[in-house]
Design the sequence.
């Protein structure tokens, strides 16, 4: 599976300009016949919208239509799957969502999946839950590569999220993100990006899954979105990564056999599946706490 | 048998920055916030001869090209001559545009009506006059005023409200003074500028550290611990003098208002920035 991860710098609130940029990127990518293209969180609007969320949020079919139009206008000759983070309007309830859409298919636009961000950061620089409603479901869905799942930004900071996705069968986790970079000491990498890589690598290696991460770039009112678009193999190895500042495309090839090999070599996911029911047990095996209690 | 012991020290986060990464980050900030968001490719700043404005001049020159940076020297008649020559040294080193506009007549013109003004009031008048000049010059040159206040002076309230803090973009406002020094050294700001004692130069022989009653080196470490959430006892336990910790804490706690827009009476459910919320770049 040929994947292109797009490190994207939107113009704040200018959806038409951002769709034009998307079309231009599709034109660049189409000759390489990608199977999957991933854009970051809030890619077509910018991340920090505050009270303007409701002005720019759209229904998933509308977003699918817009993306499909750009793909068809790019000169592409075959269908492609595209993931894009967007603000979603569901009957007046607003979500930070990501859509997985099948573009350019002769049967029409096909929304494969919509994930609604479950962990809405609302601390420090973040204020999502003031303007958005949290998603209630972590689902998996079928792709040409196999079962996949989407986690948006903070979703992936909770180890239980990739764990649950993997237990539900995911071989591939896609993470659209908008991460304000912070921490300028140390090795030359933003500390927030180092943290991201550590989290994503651990998730990939523990469960034998591919993890694809697409990050927004560009400054929004002083907050610099820190890119760091990257991919991790099912062994937890970093297979490609981009810097923190500039727009770019990260290309990776996914191989189903890599998942099989990783899981056969270190069957942690299988072990977890077996032990999981015991983890939820409240009953303790009696423990002798004092010598006098022994029979 | 006695085993060797490895003992964890009390955690104290470092103030070190990676100068390469910091430079790239702040250059990108200037380009994005000025060119991409505001469509303005020229910067204008007051060049005092001190390290903060010197560093900002270096960053602007790198981000926008020296030909797009306008440095204004705005001496008052009591300003130190060395401030002027240091500012010239910086402008020469960078090849940026430089102009001198003496604010003495304008300041004295007003002060004739305020004969009782003490040095503190006079200093504020000078700071506000400089900002008036800077904004007018920015309109003349279609250049965006760029701020030069650092995190330490912002937290200590050591600046004139609605003067030094007014430019719409500021690349160094989240850098402590010690980080400003480190970055300035890395970028090659002249040694004379980096090494001289920081001064607002509003009065003869004035220095920041004597005004503040604490060195920047100590203030920065204490500020950092306070902002990270440590209480005074925890900071003193890390070896800092209790009176210095109290001094820094008091400066922060009595100056929160200086880091905000004016307090507006809320009377509706559409109050600006309370209910009606739009980001600055929307």
Sequence:
């Amino acid at each position: 599976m040929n994947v292109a991860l797009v490190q994207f710098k939107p113009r704040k609130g200018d959806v038409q300009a951002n769709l034009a940029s998307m079309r231009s990127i599709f034109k660049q990518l189409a000759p390489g016949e990608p199977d999957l293209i991933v854009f970051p969180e809030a890619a077509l609007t910018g991340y920090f919208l505050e009270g303007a969320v409701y002005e720019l949020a759209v229904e998933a079919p509308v977003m699918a239509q817009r993306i499909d139009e750009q793909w068809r206008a790019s000169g592409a000759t075959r269908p492609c799957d595209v993931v894009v983070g967007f603000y979603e309007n569901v009957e007046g309830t607003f979500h930070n969502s990501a859509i997985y859409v099948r573009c350019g298919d002769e049967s029409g636009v096909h929304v494969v999946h919509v994930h609604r961000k479950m962990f809405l950061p609302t601390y420090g620089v973040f204020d999502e839950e003031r303007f958005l409603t949290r998603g209630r479901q972590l689902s998996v869905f079928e792709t040409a590569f196999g079962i996949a799942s989407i986690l948006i930004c903070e979703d992936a900071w909770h180890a239980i999220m990739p764990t649950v996705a993997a237990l539900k069968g995911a071989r591939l986790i896609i993470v659209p993100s908008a991460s304000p970079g912070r921490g300028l000491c140390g090795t030359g990498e933003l500390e927030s990006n180092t943290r991201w890589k550590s989290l994503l690598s651990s998730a990939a290696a523990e469960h034998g899954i591919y993890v694809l991460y697409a990050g927004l770039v560009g400054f929004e009112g002083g907050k610099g979105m820190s890119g760091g678009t990257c991919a991790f193999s099912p062994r937890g190895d970093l297979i490609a990564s981009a810097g923190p500042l500039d727009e770019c495309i990260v290309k990776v090839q996914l191989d189903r056999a890599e998942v099989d090999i990783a899981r056969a070599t270190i069957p942690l996911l299988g072990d977890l599946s077996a032990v999981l029911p015991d983890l939820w047990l409240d009953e303790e095996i009696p423990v002798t706490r004092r010598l006098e209690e022994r029979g | 048998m006695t085993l060797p012991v490895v003992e964890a020290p009390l955690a104290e986060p470092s103030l070190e920055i990676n100068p390469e990464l910091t430079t790239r980050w702040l250059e990108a900030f200037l380009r994005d916030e000025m060119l991409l968001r505001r469509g303005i490719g020229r910067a204008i700043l007051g060049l005092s001869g001190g390290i903060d404005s010197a560093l900002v001049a270096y960053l602007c020159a790198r981000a926008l090209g020296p030909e797009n940076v306008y440095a204004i020297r705005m001496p008052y008649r009591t300003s130190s001559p060395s401030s002027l020559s240091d500012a010239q040294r910086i402008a020469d080193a960078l090849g940026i545009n430089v102009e001198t506009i003496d604010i003495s007549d304008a300041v004295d013109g007003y002060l004739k009506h305020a004969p009782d003004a003490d040095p503190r009031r006079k200093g504020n008048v000078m700071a506000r006059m400089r900002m008036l000049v800077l904004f007018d010059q920015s309109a003349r040159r279609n250049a965006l005023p760029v701020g030069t206040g650092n995190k330490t002076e912002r937290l200590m309230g050591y600046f004139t409200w609605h003067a030094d803090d007014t430019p719409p973009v500021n690349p160094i406002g989240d850098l402590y003074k010690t980080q400003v020094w480190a970055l300035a050294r890395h970028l090659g700001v002249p040694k004379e500028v980096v090494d001289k004692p920081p001064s607002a130069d509003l009065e003869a022989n004035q220095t920041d550290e004597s005004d503040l009653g604490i060195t920047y080196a100590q203030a920065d470490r204490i500020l950092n611990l306070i902002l990270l959430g440590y209480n005074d006892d925890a900071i003193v336990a890390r070896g800092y003098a209790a009176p210095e910790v109290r001094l820094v804490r008091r400066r922060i706690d009595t100056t929160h208002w200086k880091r905000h827009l004016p307090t507006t009476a809320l009377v509706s459910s559409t109050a600006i920035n309370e209910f009606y919320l739009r980001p600055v770049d929307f």
